[in-house]
Structure of Core-binding (CB) domain-containing protein:
Amino acid sequence: MSSKLKLTTPWVEHLCIPIRNGANAHTLLDFNRFRYKGIPKTNLIKQGDEQLLARDDIVQSLFIAITGHEDVTPATKYNIFNAARKHFTFCDSQVPALIPLSESTFIRELKCHLLRQRRGEIKDSTASRIKADLTTLYNWMGRSTKFTSGFKNPGNTQSEPTRGYSDGDLKKLLPLLRGLFRQLYSQFILDPDSHIKASGITATMTFCWKGKTYPVRSGVSKLFYAAAYLLSYYTWSNSSILYTLKRPTLSSHTPSDNWHQMPAFKRRAFKTISVEIGDNNRLEIPKYATQFFDQLITASTLLDPGPDGLLLPTYSHRKKSVQMMSSCLLNDFKSSWLSVHFPMTDDLGQRLWPVTRRFRATGSHLTLALKGPVEAALRLDNTPETIRQAYSDGNPYENNQMNRDTSQTLEQVVRDRQSIESAKQKVREAQKVSVLAYEAYVRRASPPVRNSHGSYCNDTAGTMATMFTSRARRNGLIPPEETLACADLLNCWSCKHQVLVESVTDLWCVLSFREYLEESQYLHLDKAHYTKNFGQTIVNIDSRLKLLNQKTLQHARRKLADEGRHPLWSDVQSTDMT
């Protein structure tokens, strides 16, 4: 299109194009707005009360420059359009008005933003971004930007890393989101068509929470809004990645062998990454996470049944069609419904609601605490420097608690000349707590320990470990200064700290251990002797196995039949359990 075409009407249709912005929402880039003083909105232009300026040529050049860049993403075009809108607005607001896209105007606008930054009205990172976007706009328009080299970049010293959630925050958010998803899902699958075709103002679903029932309008969309936040917690992915995920082909799986993996294009890095349903440094995959994911696939298939259907679709009752998830939709869900009916505050008394990047920061901080920046960078698919700048601060409330405990412990060490452990105990007694903040954090961040019989322990250094260590010392098995983690393989099956994972490999090990105990009967004096040693343990194992997914358990039984017992429990005579 030529930039010299005469625009004969107040509003020209071809100058208004649809685009998807950085929040993944559909919007319009209306270049007609640049023809009028003050860059008014489209609806005001169509009313005919705005002042038309003589700059149609520059507007058409701007249209060609932005829409003609095929090597950039729509989100980048939207950002440069916004930079142009602010630039033209600045020009029209000055007295006398300035000429857009001139060298003097660039310098004057940049000085204005630097002054605002020095006053504390905006951060230096914001000023740097404004300068970068303005420079890109000038370059796209073919204007020289050599004169900008004399301006020092404001820098990025005032940016704040994303705050992670504390353990208390997660205990408030996750049960609500899980409950909302489960209840809406169970109602949706009973009659999908009625919920999809219902009016957006008709409450077709209900949500029961803490004894109160809430009517839910647009329940199908709210189902996927809750799913989006839960998926961000389980995957630690960027929001833009989550919105574009395609539905995987398989829903049922074995946690130890097959992970839910979905390819996704990472826009700013310009590469394809793999998004996995993960464990948040807990077990291999929590049972409730696999149930959630299978239910999510079922729900998304009902709403968007196509072969390339989205994993997180939403439904527009106004357009009567499926649309892609966006930050705008999620923000509206939080502000107009979630925070209205379920207002929450965090440990510092500030408003608490789900934010995708905060779930991502929480996962990063847990990984940093245990495995370092390289592992965190791999998990989040970022560089270690990005992790350090944006995802390393953790939660302020927990940080303050840990700093307080550390300073008080060191004070006790210096003042009373005692050991670290004695000082910690005094601090615990003074605060009337059983566990200090950092110890609780490490315990929460640390994954449970896998025992040799296939189950896990989430309190290997607790009371049972102390009793196990004392027993070993009495029998002269370890020196007095050495401590052991709990490894009482028989009593483990009646312990409240035991955790079983629905994994074929783990359950194969459990079944091997059980078969090992049964086979050891011939080593006993008689059946009473055998029952005294292992009878109750086998009963406990059977009662625990009944609570597991029988399909997964059947796969483990088949593995035991095909491959034999686990190598740790292959030979009865090689181990003395009596």
Notes: The longest strand covers residues 203-209. The two ends are 88 Å apart (CA to CA).
